[in-house]
Amino acid sequence: MAVVGGAAAPPLILKLLLSLLLCFNYSSPTLIQAAGKWEPWEDRYPFIREASSFSSSSSSSNNGNNIKTYDYIIVGGGTAGCPLAATLSQKFSVLLLERGGVPFANANVSFMQNFHIALADTSPSSASQYFLSTDGVFNSRARVLGGGTCINAGFYTRAGPSYIKKAGWDSKLVNESYPWIEKQIVHKPNLAPWQRAVRDSLLEIGISPFNGFTYDHIYGTKVGGTIFDRFGRRHTAAELLASANPKKLDVLVHATVQKIDFDTSGKKPRAVGVIFKDENGNQHKAFLSKRKGSEIIVSSGAIGSPHILMLSGIGPKAELEKLNIPVVLDNKFVGQGMSDNPLNTIFVPTNRHVEQSLIQTVGITKEGVYIEASSGFGQSGDSIRCNHGVASAEIGQLSTIPPKQRTFEAIEAYRRSKKNIPHELFRGGFILEKIATPLSRGNISLVTTNADDNPSITFNYFSHPRDLKRCVDGIRIVEKIAKSKHFTNYTQCDKETLDKLLNMSVQANVNLIPKHTNNTQSLEQFCKDTVITIWHYHGGCHVGKVIAPDYRVLGVHRLRVIDGSTFEESPGTNPQATVMMMGRYMGVKILRERLGRAAGL
């Protein structure tokens, strides 16, 4: 059975298919639309293969020993890795290794209606890999070609000019790289009623001016872009591979990199290849070309990149030696300085069905917080039966109980009892507040030498007092929105329904507006107790500590890191636009440095 979706699919048919597919991991072949025609994804991306198909031998090899080599090996086919690979393949041979599968045949990835199910899927084949930080906050990292663009809320917005300047990027090339992304996968949203109410309420309480629809990062209220099209179908970074040179690009899925291989015979270690495991557990080695300029580029994200560096022997010496990992380079900063933008939210119950929506409207405040919203993901029948991601009590998110008390036993007990809770109590939406630039810092440390295992991850939410103050300011803004006249028609509940909501709030783990809003201390506790993630974690491979300004790893040859692990701050209100831009930007920059004007880019 083929899934028919995208721009030409009739909305009614699409809705019927979504209903049929809900709550299932759908993985049969699918059709995609290209140039107005429907075709199997394998025809559009013939260079994507299973890792087990890899062979290191080549009859066309020019190195004299029939070993196939690549000019670039990219570890991680995610938000940065896909545009980077597509760009570099224009002139050089590229091998892109992705530990997950393809997104094209996965309905939980492809359709907005299934957003919550994809996040709550904890199976080994899921596009989302669950982890629990030592802070007690449940979190997810992508495990699929296209990375975080396959499991996020889809909001697309650029970084501000000051961020670009601070990063040391060439603004002209940046402003060429963003549109390269936007022309291929970004859309203007059809604003949902909940999003319109949030927009109008933000303006009513003074988060102004209204900047209309824009990708730009500007103080006030705006509507941003989305990677969901008008039929609710997601377009991911994996689709940027359509811009690649298919003759120079190999993409291997279910290729889990175990470590980077180094030649340590010289003054500095030199990256020479990558050892990876295929879907059957068999091990392979890919070799880097000996040509000048060839490099291995790690683009595995804020968790994956420092993790791979440490597994490869680059990191704090004492930590590596504890797990008997041969030390290639002692660098105490690898995995340090991790940060996650804390998210707190308030559930606004409604007296009617609410259309499903993910982030479309944003308030960019001068208090250092961003206001966003989602709606409708807790009220449908599938949400009563299934785990459901961002609006999910089952996985500990949006919970009124403190993070470290969110046990699996408590989650399972709630899931069993949820069926007995009146269905109408799940109707409503969420108003979200995110700290813009948290000062609290954490770290990553190894637990095992198994690349499939998550490292130990600590973010130390609200350990810096400024972050806590900003959260309090943000919750006060959210309260004003929830009480604004534009929400009046949504929230006029009768007394019986309100009583039910209050009585079930702890059992059902649904956040309500704090009762003592004039008490700063109670709001501080609310922030600490209800903190969750919006998956915008970053850091671990910072410039000047782990990498140079050109993203080359300090102390070794032929190795770079290009992704969100290099960020000191998360760009814009939501980072995916800038991470994709960074992949394109650095690809062009590398080609220009290597080829000069002959790059043609």
UniProtKB/TrEMBL annotation:
Disulphide bonds in the chain: 471-527
Source species, domain of life: Eukaryota
Gene Ontology molecular function, alphabetical: flavin adenine dinucleotide binding; oxidoreductase activity, acting on CH-OH group of donors
InterPro entries in UniProt: FAD/NAD-bd_sf, GMC_Oxidoreductase-Related, GMC_OxRdtase, GMC_OxRdtase_N, GMC_OxRtase_C
UniProt entry tagged with the keyword Protein biosynthesis: no
Keyword terms of this UniProt record: Disulfide bond, FAD, Flavoprotein, Signal
Signal sequence coordinates: 1-29
One Pfam family this sequence matches: GMC_oxred_N
Residues that, per the record, bind FAD: 98-99, 144, 257, 535-536, 564, 575-576
Domain (Glucose-methanol-choline oxidoreductase N-terminal): residue spans on this chain: 301-315
Cofactor: FAD
Protein family: Belongs to the GMC oxidoreductase family.
Record PANTHER family: OSJNBA0019K04.7 PROTEIN, PROTEIN HOTHEAD
Name of the featured protein: Protein HOTHEAD isoform X1
Native source organism of the sequence: Nicotiana tabacum
Name of the gene encoding the protein in the UniProt record: LOC107814122
